[in-house]
Protein 1
Amino acid sequence: MALYFDADYRIIQLSVAVYFAATAILQLVIGPLSDKYGRRPVLMWGVGLFLLATLGCIFAPNATIFLLFRMMQAIVSVTMVISRAVVRDMYMDDQAASMIGYVTMGMAIAPMLGPAIGGFLDEWLGWQASFWTLFLLGVLCIWLIQADLGETAVASDRSLIQQFREYPELFRSPRFWGYAAAAALSSGAFFAYLGGAPFVGTELFGLSSSQLGIFFGAPALGYFFGNFLSGRFSIRFGINQMVLWGCGVNAAGLMILLLIFLYGQGNVYIFFGFMTFVGIGNGMTLPNATAGMLSVRPHLAGTAAGLGGSLMIGGGAALSALAGILLAPETGAMPLLWLMFTTAALGLAAIQFVHWRERQLMR
């Protein structure tokens, strides 16, 4: 794409960061809109606009226009926000965490297969082929919503302004912030990986597009397994314990990987292989932390999903961009590994705060 648009590699790499940044902002609006007007119509409009933005990316005449439409593609985040709210409409607390785990286990298939498919499409048909694939998947998504998804929420009788005014109710909840921070920081390690791993794979390890696509899906493989564990054990052990274990797996795997590279023993297989622990940890953390966020104020499930998702994606956008800035051929992979480990460790601290807060409330 950099060659196609005659643009600097770092400019094109911003397509990840601007997408996440726009996603973070949009989720603040999507949640209240779905609480006000219902889940189904907001989904239909969002995916429809995503299709238009995808066509804009395909036919963009230069990098600036491409990045503009790439940012507009973030409207598809309606599916992330509202899918969680739909589950919370139908199930309560630990059971909701279990169901979100199974749902996101299915969602993990896309990032598991997507990079490999995208790499081959890029080599065989050019970068536009990936966006045509996204367009077709968007059409399939609209058909599925139309054919199968009924409305799960009762439309609110409050005005949209009143919906937004309820944000402070979430702001005043320490447990909401604890769950949101655990989710944002744990996933922050993964977002930093998204921003830095392509550089590490291509510039440091010399991988081709198709090879990078195969290696790049390592966290998604772990994420699939981690979500299975959430679906299987969240009801038995509770959401707080599952988040604690997930954050611990994430931080421990990255600490070991960091030590391996510090001692000069790292290679492409070790780097990407250990990223499966990031996926496992996030698969255990995110469904349960999300269920925790939505359970703090159940009548604001859509708003909580939007705000929590905004914090997670917004932080991810910043970390993704920071990872790209920090990395250079002379630095090796170390800046990325330090960034990932630090955010994972802070996520572990956040869920420990939630445990402490709940003990305080029980006294």
Protein 2
Amino acid sequence: MKKDRLFQNKYSVLVIVVLCTLLWGTAPSVIKIGYRDTFFGVSGSDIPSQILFAGARFLTAGVILLISGFLSTGKKMLPLKNEWKPLAVIGIIQTTMHYLFTFVGVAHTSGTKTSIFTASSAFMSVLAAPFFFKKERIDFKSVIGCIVGLAGLVFINFDSDGKIGFAFMGEGFILLSCVCYVTGNFISKKVGKGIGSVKLNGWQMFTGGIILVAVGLACGGRLHFNNFKCYLIVLYLALVSTVAFTLWTKVLIYNPAGKIGIYNLLIPVFSTAFSGILLGEDIFSIPNLASLLLVCAGIGLVNYQSAKKDIKKRTEDKT
């Protein structure tokens, strides 16, 4: 099918993954804006409301995706009997756990740090992919690229006094969210082709969002929609999820997880830029710039090796 070729052509795949990472890059800043008093007024210590905020986003995203899937295909979006279990597992890992850690972590660290720590998911994808998929391999240069990029994550935690500033509820939760994200991606790749990216993401967001909403409300969380801007914040974050996750899952189905996963390193580049634009954070400090350079060097090393392998493979195929 021509539609599927779009997700296999290296140029269209590049455009799609850059679009996805750009959309995800806006999320940390928009979440922090949503916490402000002019919107929902959620304080850093109000974890139940942060969880409820995450649930509202993904419950909305799931509903939008399932309705749009039905309208565009005319097919019922109800899962088959054998699909409920993998959808529930992905929903719990990639939506409930991933975004529970994300929304709480964002409230306890800066947008810039969130952006750069999110890059760790790219290295996790490269390093872990061979353990999940027999056809995927990791080489020495990929390992070096990951080490260089991870050095950027360490560097960003040094403050002006040369001390490490790392909070478990902040940076620690962002790292845990990355673990959940990568695990969810791998499971999606394994089952995605049989279920379909729209149904898969629609139900995993819906079920994961329901759990987040239930937990948030049970723990006393409250969201007050004081003005129309509050609805726009939730709607925007929901659309980011529906568009980015659907496209990303489709790309993952037809491409190596490690090779695609490394593009997650573009998220901190976009996120850092939006932290400066939307939050007014100082993104041009030496630690920030040095961290971004190391992260970008890591993606360059991994992709350089991948490009060499592709050229070699094409040459062997012709001979």
